[in-house]
Amino acid sequence: MTDKASIVNSSPLDEGLKMAVIYHSNYGHTRKVALAIEQGARDYAQDKVEVRALDVDDMDWEFADAAQMMVFGSAVYMGSITAEFKTFMDSTSKRWFHRKWHGKWAAGFANSGGLSGDKLAALQQICGFSMQHGMNWAGFPVMPTGHSEQDINRLSSFMGLMTQSGNDSPEVTPGEGDINSAKLFGEHLAQTLINQPPKLQLNKED
Ligand SMILES: Cc1cc2nc3c(=O)[nH]c(=O)nc-3n(C[C@H](O)[C@H](O)[C@H](O)COP(=O)(O)O)c2cc1C
């Protein structure tokens, strides 16, 4: 991770809508979900929103600061967001102090091996982090179609997206239902951003 401390003085207000999908993934399963969210948002928004997935290990702080919506996601390790995702969170403390992200949209997703696996705890950590920044939370309002691996929102999560990966490579898992759910999540978020863009104030420099 680079540029932890410095704050980029971007001027996002007149540069069009941007959505950053910021995630951490050790073995690629959560990355697969992040890329599906990115794809769903892009397919819906076309050229109305610039959408980029950003790995916390290779952060583009300038894009994140310019984005009016940030979608945070982590793999679940020991019932929690990963250590790397927590390091990302902690590295935003100057932005928190200067209220740099106040009024932006936030949303969250969590992927893990267990059906529950304490993903809700990870989503709550991400939501609390977003509230600390004064962001506005967007959930996942899509009704479950059932509980099989082909179903949409099969884990019945509304606070944010939950996906589950089996003991196999990211080419195989998470499966079709979860990946389609991630695309729908991206679509919903892009629609939210287009229909309700935040009215952000220029940040004071202190
Ligand atoms: C050290 C370790 C701790 C884990 N803890 C959990 C856990 O608390 N809950 C769970 O459901 N899965 C847990 N898992 C499984 C991972 O969530 C799962 O392998 C997931 O696909 C990892 O995502 P990634 O490929 O994006 O890193 C753990 C795996 C490891 C290696």
UniProtKB/TrEMBL annotation:
EC number: 1.6.5.2
Keyword Flavoprotein (UniProt): yes
Keyword Oxidoreductase: yes
Species, as recorded: Psychrobacter piechaudii
Record keywords, A-Z: Flavoprotein, FMN, Oxidoreductase
UniProt gene name: pnpB
Protein name: p-benzoquinone reductase
Pfam families for this protein: FMN_red (PF03358)
GO cellular component: membrane
Boundaries of every Flavodoxin-like domain copy: 19-163
GO molecular function per UniProt: FMN binding; NAD(P)H dehydrogenase (quinone) activity
